[in-house]
Design a protein that fits this description.
Layout lengths: L2 E6 L1 H7 L22 E8 L7 H20 L3 E2 L3 H10 L2 E8 L11 H6 L2 E5 L22 H12 L3 E3 L5 H10 L5 E2 L16 H9 L3 E4 L3 H4 L9 H12 L6 E3 L18 H10 L4 H15 L7
Parallel strand pairs: 1-2, 2-4, 3-4, 4-5, 5-6, 7-8, 8-9
Helix pairs in contact: 1-2
Length: 310
């Protein structure tokens, strides 16, 4: 089975816990993912809200060094370009894409985008749930949206073919991003707000905007985003979110960004080793293999053409 996942927090967990990514407590390990071929995983460095300035930038650098070390230890190729992804797709190997969750790592300095280029960052969320130098995240009351610095960052990110990720954005920040950007955008790990009414999920209008911009949306397996009653969340809820997004015309937009090692999973999901069961569940509900290949791999693959396009 081939699988492309747009978001996990495994490298962050490896860094803060000073342990190897083979730690069996993690949702993603080389052993648990061995049945996936090819397998491409986006590894995010999630910068905590309380870190600002140099401390945030230093954590970003440490996470990148940890990713390089861990990939070398486990025969995972660090992806620098779309060509790398094509090579992995053809060879059936494993690849890692470095991403940033919370652009506070810039420490308010536009020159630090050079670090994103140097470290081959491909997706960046402008905020986490709170407020930073770029704007307001999803949990900020009375959001002011984007800052002038945030607009400057958008322009530089797009100039360097780095995708803006609107997961964690407040509604106002989302529309400010749309207004001030030109390239396709992503919501790497966000579900449907119509199905589960939380601010971290996307409204129908937001999904349609991402779709109209040739963007990508990754299904999130966090139980609080899957079901309005999180204690009852199960893998069947993934199907409900997928079906709703598909009803909005999302056949070429929908992917996975499971949020492994950064979320509380539903009771019948263990981690990356559950993805085959989830695939089989979709098959039993009359999803074609062609459509599932798009959701589990091909849509994300095609989106990554943007890495070299702009």
């Amino acid at each position: 089975m081939r699988y492309f996942d747009l978001h996990c927090d495994t490298i962050y967990e490896s860094l803060v816990k000073a342990t190897d990514i083979s730690n069996p407590d993690f949702h993603i390990t080389p052993l648990k993912s061995q049945y996936l071929s090819p397998y491409i995983q986006c590894y995010a460095i999630c910068v905590p809200e309380e870190l600002r300035g140099k401390r945030a930038t230093d954590m970003f650098k440490s996470a990148y060094n940890r990713l390089i070390e861990q990939c070398a230890n486990h025969n995972i190729r660090v992806i620098k370009s779309y060509k790398d992804i094509i090579d992995i797709t053809r060879s059936g190997g494993k690849g890692a894409i470095f991403t940033v969750e919370n652009a506070s790592v810039l420490a308010g300095d536009i020159e630090n985008i050079e670090l994103f280029k140097q470290y081959n960052v491909k997706f960046v969320t402008l905020t986490w749930n709170g407020r930073n130098e770029l704007g307001d995240g999803a949990m900020v009351s009375h959001s002011n949206g984007i800052t002038s610095f945030g607009i400057e960052v958008i322009k530089e990110l797009e100039k360097n073919s780095i995708t803006i990720d609107v997961s964690h954005a407040s509604d106002r920040l989302f529309y400010d991003v749309v207004k001030n950007s030109k390239n396709p955008i992503a919501a790497t790990h966000s579900n449907s707000r119509k199905i589960t009414d939380v601010k971290r999920n996307l409204t129908d209008e937001q999904f349609k905007i991402i779709k109209s911009r040739n963007g990508i949306v990754g299904l999130n397996l966090h139980k609080y985003f899957l079901n309005n009653k999180p204690k009852t969340a199960s893998s069947i809820d993934i199907l409900k979110h997928a079906e709703h997004f598909l009803s909005l015309g999302g056949e070429n937009t929908l992917a996975f960004g499971a949020d492994f090692d950064g979320c509380e999973l539903a009771s019948d999901i263990n981690g990356i080793d559950s993805m085959n069961n989830i695939y089989e569940m979709f098959l039993k509900h009359n999803y074609s293999e062609e459509l599932l290949d798009k959701i589990f791999y091909k849509n994300a693959l095609k989106f990554c053409e943007n890495f070299d396009k702009y």
